[in-house]
Amino acid sequence: MNIYVGNLSYQMTEEELKATFAPYGAVKSAKIVVDRENNNRSKGFGFVEMESQSEGNAAIEQLNGKEIGGRELRVNEARPREPREFRGSRY
């Protein structure tokens, strides 16, 4: 199950994100989205992939709204990415 995690502390690492979800089940991956144009600074959100749907649901239920690093997490099932609209040439 793929989970969206929003409102992350900008100092949180991917290891800390993984450790936050580990008590609820097997974490396949944890990725924090970074801004490549701004010194690889965290954008304040990321994704966690859990081994099973039931583990993911348990993590969502327990962590959504929980304060970690001074910020209240927003945790829910990730939706498929919307296709981006082509806006013409970059050149």
UniProtKB/TrEMBL annotation:
Residues 71-91 are annotated as: Disordered. It comes from the Bacteria. CDD domains: RRM2_NsCP33_like. PROSITE patterns: RRM. SUPFAM superfamilies: RNA-binding domain, RBD (SSF54928). The keyword Zinc-finger does not apply. Keywords: Repeat, RNA-binding. InterPro entries: Euk_RNA-bind_prot, Nucleotide-bd_a/b_plait_sf, RBD_domain_sf, RRM2_NsCP33-like, RRM_dom. The keyword Nucleotide-binding does not apply. Residues 1-80 form the RRM domain. It holds the Pfam family RRM_1. This is RNA-binding protein. The lineage of its organism: Bacteria, Pseudomonadati, Campylobacterota, Epsilonproteobacteria, Campylobacterales.
